[in-house]
Amino acid sequence: MQKVGFFRSIHVKFVLIYVMLILIAMEIIGLYFARELEEKLKTNFTTSITDRMSLIEFSVREEMIKKRAPDDPLTLEASLQGVLSGFPSEDINEIRVINAGKIILATSALDKQQSLVGQRSTDDIVRKSLASKTPQDIIYLDRKTRNRILARATPFTHDGEVIGTLYLEADIEKVFTQIDEVNQILAGGVAVSLTITIILGILIAQTMTRPISDMRRQAQAMAKGNFSRKVRVYGNDELGQLAIAFNHLTNQLQESQSSTEGERRKLASVLENMTDGVIATDRKGRVSLINDSALLMLRLTRDLVLNRPITSILGLEQEYAFEDLIQIKDSIALDFSTNEQPYILRANFSVTQRETGFVNGLIVVLHDNTEQEKIDMERREFVSNVSHELRTPLTTMRSYLEALADGAWKNEEIAPSFLHVTQTETERMIRLVNDLLKLSRMDSRDYDLNKEWVEFNYFFNSIIERFEFSKSQEVQFVRLLSTTELFVEIDTDKMTQVLDNIISNALKYSPDGGNVRFGVTTSDDFIKVMISDDGLGIPQANVTRIFDRFYRADRARSRAMGGTGLGLAIAREMIMAHGGEVWAESEEGKGTTIFFTLPFEFQEDGEWD
Ligand code: ADP
Question: Are 138 and 35 in a shared domain?
Answer without folding.
Answer: yes
